[in-house]
Amino acid sequence: MAADDKSLPLRDSPYRIPQLGFGVYKALDDVCYNACLAAFKAGYRHIDSAQMYANEAEVGRAVNDSGLKRSEIFVTTKIMFPGQDEKSTYEKVMESVKKAGGEGNGGHEKPYVDLFLVHNPNGGRGAREMMWKAIERAKKEGYVRNIGVSNYGKPHIEEMKEYTQDWPPAVNQIELHPWCQQRKTVEYCHSQGIVIQAYCPLVRNRRADDPTLNALVKKYPGKTQAQLLIKYALQKGWVPLPKTATPSRIEENADVYGWEISEEDMHTFDALDEGRRGSIVTFCAED
Ligand SMILES: NC(=O)c1ccc[n+]([C@@H]2O[C@H](COP(=O)([O-])OP(=O)(O)OC[C@H]3O[C@@H](n4cnc5c(N)ncnc54)[C@H](OP(=O)(O)O)[C@@H]3O)[C@@H](O)[C@H]2O)c1
C-alpha cells in the first residue's frame, strides 16, 4: 500500500499534509538525493528538510527528478537563525524556497515549499518574531503554502499572538515517541487545531533493547520495532518523520498500513512515557 494513503487537513488551508513524512537530517549530498528518490519510489510524498541540514538543494533536485508532479509532493523546510534584519531574514527564506521548492510545473510556475517552520524558539523573542514575519511574507506572496513552528511549547505559541494575525501556526514539529510524549504540549496544540509532527519517532534506535518494546514486537509477527514505533505515532494522530538513508529501511518504514496496533497495546506504549527524562533532543517549555 502506498505510504501516502493518509493525509491530514491543515488550518485554514486548501492543502493537506501526508501523514507519513520522511526525515533527511544528517543525509548529505547524493546520500540525501538518492534517499529521497528511493522514498518517492516506496510511496512517501512528504520530505522534511531544514536550512540547518544543508541538503535543501538535494531535496529540490530529487523533487525535480522524481517523475512526480510537484503538486503530488509535500516539502517542508525550516529556518533556525534570522539574518541581520527583516530584509536579510526574508532573503534567507527565499533562498530555501529556491533550493528545496523544486521547479513547479516544469519551471513554468514560481517555486514554493509546502510548509516552512521556525526551527526552534531559542534565539529569543526578537529572533522568533523576525523569522515568523519572514515566512509569513513568503506565504502571502505565494512562495510558501503553510507556516508553522518547531520545538515550541504553549508559552511560545501564545506569545505569537503579540506579533501575528496568522495564528495559530498550522503545525508544531516536536520530539515525540513513547518515552517522550510531551502531553501538555500535544493537548494544547490539538485544542488549537495545530497539527503535531513527531520527530525522532524511532528514538534514533536508542531504545532497541527496551523489554516492553521487544515484547510488543513479538505480538505482531513480521513487523519490526521501527514499524511499530511509526504505527504508534500514526495511531496517535501525529505526523511521524522517520529518517533513514538505508534503502531496505526506507521501504520497511513505509510499510505501515493495512494493520493496527490494538487499543490495549497502545496503552502499553502510552505507559512508557518518561516525560522530560525521556527526551533525547528537546522537551518544549510547558509554562
Ligand atoms: N525540528 C527539529 O528540531 C528536529 C530534530 C530532530 C529531527 N528532526 C526531523 O525528524 C527526522 C527524524 O529524526 P531523527 O533522524 O533524529 O531520528 P529517527 O528518525 O528517530 O532515527 C533515525 C535513525 O534510525 C535509524 N533507522 C531508521 N529506520 C530504521 C529501521 N527500520 N531499523 C533500524 N534503524 C533504523 C537510522 O539509520 P540509517 O539512516 O543509518 O538507516 C537513523 O540512525 C529528522 O531526519 C528530521 O527531519 C527535526
UniProtKB/TrEMBL annotation:
Residues 35-273 form the NADP-dependent oxidoreductase domain. GO terms for molecular function: oxidoreductase activity. Keywords: Oxidoreductase. CDD domains: AKR_AKR1-5-like. The record marks 78 as: Lowers pKa of active site Tyr. The active site is at 53 (proton donor). It comes from the Eukaryota. The keyword Oxidoreductase applies. SUPFAM superfamilies: NAD(P)-linked oxidoreductase. Substrate binds at residue 119. Belongs to the aldo/keto reductase family. PANTHER family: 2,5-DIKETO-D-GLUCONIC ACID REDUCTASE, ALDO_KETO REDUCTASE FAMILY PROTEIN. This is Aldo/keto reductase. It comes from Rhizodiscina lignyota.
